[in-house]
C-alpha cells in the first residue's frame, strides 16, 4: 500500500500555510450493527467526526441509544425508504420523477420531521439522496422542507439552488469486486482532489459500513491514522453556517 502521493499532497498544502479540510459521510444506517460499532469506534479512536446518512423509514430507538454513546456522530436525511422507483433500464433512484413531485417531497418532509425529532441536536438539515441521485426539478422544493444542505457525489455544480457539501472519493468498488477499492488508487484520487486549483472547501470521503470488506476497513484505518494527527489536516462536520453556496461563486 503506497500512501506517498497523499502524504506529499498534504505536506505541500502545509508548506503553503494552508489546511486540508476533510469530512466523512457514511451511508445507509438504520440500526446498530457490528459494522456500525466498528466504524464508530474507529472514528472515535482518531477523533474524527462522522456523518451518518440515516434511512428514516425504519430507524428508531436502538440507533438513538447507540449514537448517544458516540458524540462525534451526526445524522443526515437519506431519502425516506431507500426504495428504487426507476425501471430496470435506468440507474437506481428514489428521488426521481417516477412519482409526482408533491408525493416525493411529502415523503422527504416526513423523513425530515422524524429524524429531527429522534436525533435532535445530532441532526443536520442535509439531504443525502439514495444512490446520490435526485431529479433537478425537486431541488427548488427542498428549502421549504427545512433542508439547508444537499450532499451528492462529485464536483459541486455551480447551478445548484441549495448549498452543496458533496463527497468526492468513494472507497467502494461498486462495479467490480463489490468490496473496497485498491488503496493505491484511493490515495492517488484523494491527493488529486487536494492538489486541484478548484478543490472544494471540504473534501468528502464516502463509506458504506454495511458492505465494507477487509480492504475497505484497512484503507479507512490507514487514512485516519495519516490525517488525524497531521497539522495541515482538519476533519470537520457539515455546518450550515460555513457551507458555500456554489451558485454564488
Automatic annotation (TrEMBL):
Gene3D superfamilies: Glycoside hydrolase/deacetylase. One of its GO terms (molecular function) is hydrolase activity, acting on carbon-nitrogen (but not peptide) bonds. InterPro entries: CE4_u4-like, Glyco_hydro/deAcase_b/a-brl, NODB_dom. SUPFAM superfamilies: Glycoside hydrolase/deacetylase (SSF88713). GO terms for biological process: carbohydrate metabolic process. Residues 27-101 form the NodB homology domain. CDD domains: CE4_u4. Belongs to the polysaccharide deacetylase family. Is involved in generating a small heat-stable compound (Nod), an acylated oligomer of N-acetylglucosamine, that stimulates mitosis in various plant protoplasts. This is Chitooligosaccharide deacetylase. It comes from Rhizobium glycinendophyticum.
Amino acid at each position: 500500500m503506497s500512501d506517498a502521493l497523499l502524504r506529499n499532497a498534504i505536506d505541500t498544502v502545509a508548506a503553503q500555510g494552508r489546511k486540508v479540510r476533510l469530512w466523512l459521510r457514511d451511508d445507509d444506517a438504520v440500526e446498530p450493527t457490528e459494522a456500525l460499532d466498528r466504524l464508530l469506534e474507529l472514528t472515535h479512536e482518531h477523533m474524527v467526526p462522522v456523518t451518518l446518512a440515516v434511512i428514516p423509514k425504519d430507524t428508531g430507538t436502538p440507533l438513538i441509544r447507540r449514537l448517544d454513546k458516540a458524540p462525534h456522530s451526526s445524522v443526515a436525511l437519506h431519502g425516506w425508504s431507500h426504495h428504487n422507483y426507476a425501471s430496470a433500464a435506468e440507474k437506481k433512484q428514489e428521488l426521481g420523477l417516477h412519482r409526482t413531485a408533491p408525493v416525493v417531497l411529502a415523503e422527504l418532509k416526513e423523513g425530515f420531521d422524524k429524524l429531527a425529532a429522534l436525533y435532535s441536536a445530532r441532526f443536520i438539515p442535509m439531504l443525502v439522496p439514495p444512490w446520490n441521485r435526485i431529479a433537478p426539478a425537486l431541488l427548488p422544493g427542498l428549502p421549504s422542507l427545512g433542508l439547508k444542505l444537499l450532499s451528492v457525489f462529485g464536483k459541486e455544480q455551480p447551478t445548484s439552488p441549495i448549498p452543496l457539501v458533496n463527497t468526492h472519493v468513494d472507497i467502494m468498488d461498486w462495479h467490480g469486486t463489490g468490496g473496497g477499492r485498491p488503496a493505491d488508487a484511493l490515495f492517488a484520487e484523494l491527493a488529486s482532489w487536494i492538489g486541484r486549483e478548484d478543490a472544494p472547501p471540504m473534501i468528502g470521503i464516502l463509506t458504506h459500513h454495511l458492505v465494507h470488506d477487509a480492504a475497505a476497513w484497512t484503507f479507512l484505518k490507514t487514512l485516519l491514522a495519516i490525517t488525524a494527527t497531521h497539522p495541515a489536516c482538519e476533519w470537520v462536520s457539515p455546518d450550515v453556517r460555513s457551507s458555500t453556496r456554489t451558485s454564488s461563486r
